[in-house]
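Hi Y.,

Following your request, here is the sequence exactly as I used it, all 319 residues.
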Amino acid sequence: MRTALRIAVCAAFFLITLTAHALEVPFLTGRVTDNADILSRDMRRSVTEMLKAHEDRTGNQIAVLTIPTLENESIEDYANKVFASCKLGRKGKDNGVLVVIAPKDRRMRIEVGYGLEGTLTDSLAGSIIRNVITPQFKTGNYDSGIEAGVKAIIDVLEKGESALITGDTVPETQTPSGLHIDAPDLPLTERILVGAFIFGIIGLFSVIGVVTPGTGWFLYAFLIPFWAMFPIIVVGTSGALTLLITYLVAFPVAKLMLGSTGWYQKAKEDLHTKGRASIGGFMISSGGSGGSWSSGSSGSSGFSGGGGSSGGGGASGSW
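Below is the corresponding structure, written out as C-alpha cells. Let me know if you'd prefer a different format.
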C-alpha cells in the first residue's frame, strides 16, 4: 500500500477515535507535517520530494513532524507515541524514521525503527543533530537545518557512516521553479479508493451532524479542519479549498431546511421530553450538553496499520 494511503488510514482513524477521546498525537498529513509553520512552502515541497525519492529507491519511510511545543512532555516519549500511532516503515522490516522538532522548546529528536538501528545508530543520529542540524537552527535557519538533516539521514541509510565523514551531506542549493500547486501523487485508481475511504468517513459524520438536533452544530464546527486537510491527499489544495467552502455553505443550509420537517421536529421534541429519539433506524440519546448515537450493536471496530515499530532507538538534542 502506498504511503499516502497509509497516512489517510491513520488520519481517518484519528477522526473516529477523536470523537470519543481527545488524543495528544497529531495525524501526519504527509511526509512533511509542519504544524509549527517553520518551513517555507518551497522547502516543504523539496524535502517531501527528497523523502519520496528515497522511499522509492529503498522502501525506507521517513517523516518530518514539527510542533510548536511539547507542553512539558519529554520529546522521547512524544516521538515514540507518534511513531507507534502512525507505524512508520513496512511491517516486518520496521524501516521507518521520524524526525520531530519543537522550536519553542528548542528540542528535536530522530526516532529510528528497529530495522534501521544497525545502520542509523544512536551515535550517528546524535552526530547529525549536533553537527548538521543544530548549527543551522542556532541561526534561526530552519529551512537549511531540516534539509541538511534529512539529506544526512538519507545519505547514512544509502551510503553508510562514511557519508558523514566525507561531507556528502551538504545540501545542494535549489532554485524555486516558480508557482507550484500542490497536488496528490496517487494514480487515478488509488485516488478513487482513498477518496472513497476519506469522504465516506467525514461524509458520514457530516450527515450525522445534519440530521441530529442540537449537537449537530457542534459536529459542524468540529469537522471544519478535517474537511480542510483530508481532501488534499486526494484532490490537492485547490480541490480541498473548493470542498471546504461547499461544506461550510451546504451543511447549515441542509440543516436549516431539515429543521422545518415533521420528523426532525418530532426527534427534537423526543430528545427534550424523553431524552432519546429514533432517526433513520439509529437511536440518539441526549446526555446533558450533547448526544450520542447507537445502532443497537454492541460490537466494536479496531484498526491495524500493519506498519513498522520503534524500540526507542535514535537520539535527541537541543539548540
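The radius of gyration is 23 Å.

Thanks again,
Q.
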